[in-house]
Design brief:
Length: 415
């Protein structure tokens, strides 16, 4: 493929582009920490730091890539915090980041085809499906306003307004509007919430303009680590897909140069670094890829400005306070759609790669991943336990390696 950009350059005239790309990513960036109880300002800071780490690891060769909060970890973080606490969860996320790093070194030694053989669509698809379905009850409860001071009728009305605004932006939006559907839904729902009088503005009044984000240190618990590492399987494939997507936009083969060995390394170190500060794990953002396609702003230096903007905004106390005043029903309305979309991405993975579910081998792998993960099965070995998405992912990988392939199984190459 012919290269369509001139390489990295850090220019002051690109600062506005950088701010614009943060605007595109902002809705998803702040939504993930809001759902998991993490601090939004810390998430902004770690997104900026993570993006800079990614640029260093890839020698600044990849066209604008922004790393921020990964939705694949919402359910695992929620469960892990309830079981082992925030500090241990951060330790588990550090280990998940190091899993990416380990994969990057395996790719260096064995080539990237190893990833495709270890994590084929028959494993990755159902793992992604479980991520969305496990989250669905929490989305419905938020949309219904469970535990809130306002009535269920008000909650459902506002949730519906947020949902419809998001759908409208996805289906009918043009240009930049189509790239920020989550932000459109949040803003519309927030305005409706103000109209219904359920927004408490006092946190904004109390917050300082300049405030150091409440960073938190990790601790290390074997159960949390073993639970979190397998969860990284789905984001690994998401990462490969996003690198392919940005390469298709720019007609540049980033899979080979700087290569998966470097992009996975950057993503892994960014995730581990984020957890060291108490922030959510990072992933490459497809929203930003869409904005790159629209604007044709191919200079990787633009994303340096985006990262710097995110870091600076992390120290604006009133911004975090404003976001904290968004009612849960606003988020719930959007989540009803978003969690379903996550599951549909898993189904798309199976369909796109023509996984034959009439084949007993594939049927067994998919069935056991779905039931063990969604059913909440727990395997306790005394020194450690496995459950949920992590257990389903591990089981899928093992079954894929040990179940004999039949004549109907075709060797899968690439994503």
């Amino acid at each position: 493929m012919e290269n369509t950009y001139d390489g990295y350059s850090f220019r002051s005239k690109d600062a506005l582009f950088g701010v614009q790309f943060l605007f595109v990513a902002f809705g998803a960036l702040v939504l993930m920490p809001m759902l998991t109880g993490l601090n939004v300002n810390v998430a902004l800071f770690t997104a900026g730091i993570g993006t800079l780490i990614f640029q260093i690891c890839t020698r600044r060769r990849v066209v604008p890539i922004f790393l921020a909060s990964s939705f694949a970890f919402i359910a695992p973080i929620t469960f892990s915090v309830s079981e082992w606490g925030l500090a241990a969860t951060m330790g588990g996320l550090i280990a998940a980041g190091l899993f990416y790093v380990a994969l990057s070194f395996i790719v260096r030694l064995k080539g990237q085809d190893f990833i495709y053989r270890l994590l084929p669509p028959v494993v990755v698809g159902p793992v992604i499906i479980t991520i969305g379905l496990i989250l669905s009850p929490s989305a419905v409860n938020m949309a219904l306003g469970k535990g809130a001071a306002y009535s269920e009728g008000v909650a459902l009305t506002i949730a519906a307004i947020s949902l419809l605004a998001t759908i409208f932006a996805i289906v009918f939006g043009r240009g930049m509007l189509r790239l920020i559907p989550i932000l459109v839904g949040i803003v519309t729902g927030y305005v409706a919430s103000v109209f219904y009088g359920i927004v408490d503005f006092s946190p904004i009044e109390r917050a300082a303009w300049f405030e150091v984000p409440p960073f938190s240190a990790p601790s290390f618990n074997l159960n949390a680590i073993l639970y979190m590492i397998p969860v990284a399987i789905a984001p690994t494939i998401e990462h490969i897909g996003n690198i392919l997507a940005i390469g298709n936009v720019t007609k540049t083969n980033f899979i080979h140069n700087p290569g998966l060995k470097n992009t996975l390394l950057g993503d892994g170190l960014a995730t581990s670094a984020a957890a060291c500060f108490g922030g959510p794990p990072n992933t490459t953002y497809s929203e930003v890829t869409g904005a790159v396609r629209l604007t044709k702003a191919y200079n990787p230096g633009i994303m340096t400005w985006t990262a710097i903007t995110a870091i600076l905004l992390a120290f604006v106390g009133k911004l975090g306070a404003l976001i904290s005043t968004i009612p849960a029903c606003v988020i719930g309305g959007i989540m009803v759609l978003l969690f379903g979309i996550i599951s549909s991405v898993g189904m798309e993975t199976l369909v796109k790669h023509r996984v034959d579910l009439a084949n007993p081998r594939n049927m067994i792998i998919v069935a056991l991943i779905l039931v063990t993960a969604i059913g909440g099965m727990v395997l306790d070995f005394g020194f450690a336990s496995f459950s949920g998405i992590g257990l389903g992912a591990i089981l899928g990988v093992i079954l894929n390696l040990i179940l004999p392939k039949t004549e109907k199984n075709e060797e899968y190459e690439g994503y």
